[in-house]
Amino acid sequence: MKTAVVCGAGGFIGSHLVKRLKAEGYWVRGVDIKRPEFSRSAADEFKLLDLRLPKNCVKAISLQQGIADEVYQLAADMGGMGFIHSAECEIMHNSVLINVHMTQAAATLGVKRYFYSSSVCVYRDMKHGEPEMTEAQAVPANPDNEYGWEKLYSERMALAYSRKFGMTVRIARFQNCYGPEGTWRGGREKAPAAISRKVAEAAHGDTIDIWGDGSAVRSYTYVDDMVDGIFRLMHSDLEGAVNIGCPHYYTVKELVDITAAVAGKTIQTRTVPGPVGVQSRNFSNERIYSIGWTSRFDLKDGMALTYPWVKKQVKKAAAKAKAG
Ligand code: NAD
Asked: Which residues pair with 238 in a beta bridge?
């Protein structure tokens, strides 16, 4: 039986990835500094480890039966735009330590395949409609935030260890990912979860606040599609960074309208100052398409699955608060 370690298995994409690896027949160890918040991990074994420490990275990938065949590195100190703008030092410090020590441990202990989760935040700010950038055009680099710079550095480190130690490294640059069991409150939530929460809390006809003037565009990838992309990329011959994303772009206002339609409510928006991030990022998905991946969920389908889950969390939290 193939063995896999998923670092960041207590988080959103990691916990979904564990389920996919189990469905593919793997023995899986999940590793994280915390357990999954919303459901029991599907992993065969779950280890609580702080991966900023070198000895814990060695522990993470050392199994009773030897070294894990595949390591998926998704652990990071991260969140949506609000967090990215307010926690620059924490992001750069914590995530770079995790990646320095995880890459070193995996390469020196002889892991065969290593996956690293990067982000399209490595690309510069763009205007909507500018020609799509290929992966190579991320350099010369000018990410608008420190999260993107950390990702670029960690990508390069993984590739350097790959060259020196012969470890196969696969790197995905994820687009905004959303779906059930993602952070939905507390400051680290991303736009689809934050908008779902605001719409769930609003009454029919209410107005909700959105950051900026509402014109910034984003594309969103449903978590099942993202996990499918990770699995396919890990087992492909594609070297270097590979973008994974849905090709459709939406303004924040359109995201609200889609969410409101799913909720069956009329919702107005009020624009307020806030950390918007880039106006747009247009990047090519041709490399991931070349191995047969394509997104199966458009935003409407994905929000039809995400909104009810967030609404349930909102109701549960309200009931808990009422009960004292
Ligand atoms: P998440 O925050 O839900 O998961 C990250 C996990 O890492 C968390 O469970 C957290 O506890 C864990 N972690 C943090 N510090 C740790 C430490 N010191 N030791 C061990 N574990 C630690 O985030 P996610 O959305 O699942 O993202 C997974 C990966 O994908 C991250 O690398 C993220 O940067 C990347 N990514 C995500 C998105 C997105 O839209 N969600 C977009 C681009 C890139």
From this structure: none
Q: What is the pLDDT of residues 229-244, one digit of tens each?
A: 999 999 999 999 999 9
The one catalytic residue in 26, 123, 147, 222 is 147
Fold classified for 179-219+248-281+296-314: UDP-galactose 4-epimerase; domain 1 (3.90.25)
Cα(193) to ligand 1 centroid in Å equals: 15
* pLDDT tens by residue, 15-74: 999 999 999 999 999 999 999 999 999 999 999 999 999 999 999 999 998 999 999 999
Q: Is 147 among the residues known to form the active site? A: yes
Max Cα-Cα span within the chain? 60
Cα separation of 13 and 31, whole Å?
13
Cβ–Cβ < 8 Å for 304, 259? no
229 close to ligand 1 (CB < 6 Angstrom)? no
* Tens-place pLDDT, residues 193-211: 999 999 999 999 999 999 9
Ligand 1 mean position, distance from CA 73 (Å): 9
Superfamily of domain 3-177+221-244: NAD(P)-binding Rossmann-like Domain (3.40.50.720)
pTM beyond cutoff 0.85: yes
